[in-house]
Specification:
Strand order of the largest sheet: 14-17-18-13-12-19-20
Mean pLDDT: 97
CATH superfamily of the largest domain: Aldehyde Dehydrogenase, Chain A, domain 1
CATH class of the largest domain: Alpha Beta
Largest sheet: 7 strands, mixed
Structural class: alpha/beta
Radius of gyration: 23 Å
Number of strands: 21
Length: 494
């Protein structure tokens, strides 16, 4: 990752974008568009087509035609595997272009985006390419004279709605396993960050993905997203985003064709530091980046820091020093540690959370200020609050910004109680040198992911999913395939 490579790409003109329907880039039927605004400097990058319900219907029809034709769903697994590998190879070949394009669109610091976006997406497509020819059925242990076969079949048309924080990474988590299983896909990127996924779609076509197997509709969630959720010919809806939107999607499913809806809805993840943590300095460094990387715009961010009272003051002092030293600035500068807030509306929500926390009695120790390292952009210094109590909004509500709430605890039972005192259950972490305690916490924490003496390390080989109001189903790993396959029983009298 060289600064000169980044600088050569950062000012490239971006053409206005259309919808991808049955292998063709087309304008929306309404003719409407919306600006893609860069959070780096507030400038408009290009115009995005705004899909209406009729556009969504055409995209779903295309996906259904391609699925029923068998052009992909019945293609030999070895051929599908080759195409998915070619998609991954094209992502790798366009690594720098995709990374810079994504940062221009959503403001993630380039050092993180380089790995987390095209790097992760390529690895995801390679991983699921290798899954294609390893999807096996079963022979049941039946009585003599009968044969029970359990077939695994693609479900049909998959709709995927992807957020703005890591669009390429999360998009790949949904697209790659759905395609590996033999489905056709209609993708709806966030209107706040569509560009890298639109480029990915073209790379998929270039790699030989048949027309109609992947369709892309851009525009608003209120129109395009709802049209997908209510469409009678969508079989599966996979969504990553907010809880309120997740509820609307479930309601739309109930009021339409009862499509299966899989939701990853974020969290208020506890990061628990015991006084026997093996290295408090390392724990502080990793914990700081566990909330401040990508300006806190991470689903699994460790936004609730629970520190055992005996080391509370020392640990907070370490965190304050780290938070104050982090360089917030132009996300396309390789020396920047914290990039931009992805959009103006999120910056406003972050500031509202800071003001509310102060009003409720939490103490702001550092940060929380809007700054302008690049004129016109959306930037905020990492904030740390202590004297937070469990009843405060900052301890209960997801901010999705660089705002950390610190709460003290007395002993293991108290720490566990505070950690589980949440409607969410996506991620968590435990810092301890006691192996028995680590296993007890893993067993008793109500979360889909438990980190031990680290934060944010899982790769594509393990599942990501939540419990409680953090959602259902899993992205990543072989377990993600479960969403995109149906089981069919054949009971044969011999």
């Amino acid at each position: 990752m060289k600064q000169e490579t980044i600088d050569a790409l950062r000012h490239q003109a971006i053409p206005d974008q259309g919808l991808l329907i049955h292998g063709q880039w087309v304008a929306s039927l309404s003719g409407q568009s919306l600006p893609a605004v860069s959070p780096i400097d507030g400038q408009t990058l290009c115009q995005l087509a705004v899909a209406c319900a009729e556009d969504v219907d055409l995209a779903v029809q295309s996906a259904r035609r391609s699925f029923e034709s068998g052009v992909w769903s019945r293609m030999a697994p070895a051929q599908r595997k080759q195409i998915l590998h070619r998609i991954a190879q094209r992502i790798e070949a366009h690594h720098a272009e995709l990374a810079v394009l994504g940062v221009r669109d959503n403001g993630t610091e380039i050092a993180m985006a380089w790995k987390a976006e095209p790097g992760s997406a390529a690895a995801t497509f390679h991983y699921y390419a290798e899954c294609v020819d390893k999807i096996n059925g079963e022979i049941a242990p039946t009585p003599e004279g009968t044969l029970g076969l359990i077939h695994k079949e693609p479900v049909g048309v998959v709709a995927a709605i992807v957020p703005w924080n890591f669009p390429l990474m999360i998009g790949a988590w949904k697209i790659a396993p759905a395609l590996a299983a033999g489905n056709s896909v209609v993708l709806k990127p966030s209107e706040e960050a569509s560009l890298s996924l639109l480029r990915l779609a073209q790379l998929c076509l270039d790699a030989g993905l048949p027309p109609g197997v992947l369709n892309v509709v851009t525009g608003t969630g209120a129109v395009a997203g709802e049209a997908l959720a209510r469409h009678m010919d969508v079989d599966i809806l996979s969504f990553t985003g907010s809880g309120p939107v997740g509820r609307l999607l479930l309601k739309a499913s109930a009021e339409s064709n009862l499509k299966r809806v899989y939701l990853e809805l974020g969290g208020k993840s506890p990061n628990i530091v015991f006084d026997d943590a093996p290295d408090l300095a390392q724990a502080a460094k990793v914990s700081a980046m566990g909330i401040y990387r990508n300006s806190g715009q991470v689903c699994v961010a460790g936004s609730r820091l629970l520190v055992q009272r005996s080391v509370h003051d020392e640990f907070v002092a370490r965190l304050l020093k780290i938070a104050a030293s982090l360089r917030v600035g132009d996300p396309l500068d390789v020396t920047t540690e914290i990039g931009a807030i992805s959009n103006r509306a999120q910056l406003v929500r972050n500031q509202q959370a800071v003001h509310r926390a102060s009003e409720q009695g939490a103490r702001l120790r550092v940060g929380g200020e809007v700054i302008s390292p690049v004129a016109g952009g959306y930037y905020m210094t990492p904030a740390l609050f202590d004297q937070v109590t469990p009843d405060m909004a900052l301890a209960r509500d997801e901010v999705f910004g660089p705002v950390l709430a610190v709460l003290p605890f007395d002993d293991e039972d108290h720490g566990l109680h505070l950690a589980n005192d949440s409607v969410y259950g996506l991620a968590s972490a435990v810092w301890t040198g006691n192996l028995s305690r680590a296993h007890r916490m893993v067993r008793n924490l109500k979360a889909g992911v438990v980190h031990v003496n680290t934060y944010g390390g899982p790769d594509i080989t393990v599942p990501l999913g939540g419990v409680r109001q953090s959602g259902n189903g899993h992205d990543k790993s072989m377990h993600a395939m479960d969403k995109y396959l149906d089981l069919k029983t054949a009971w044969i009298q011999l």
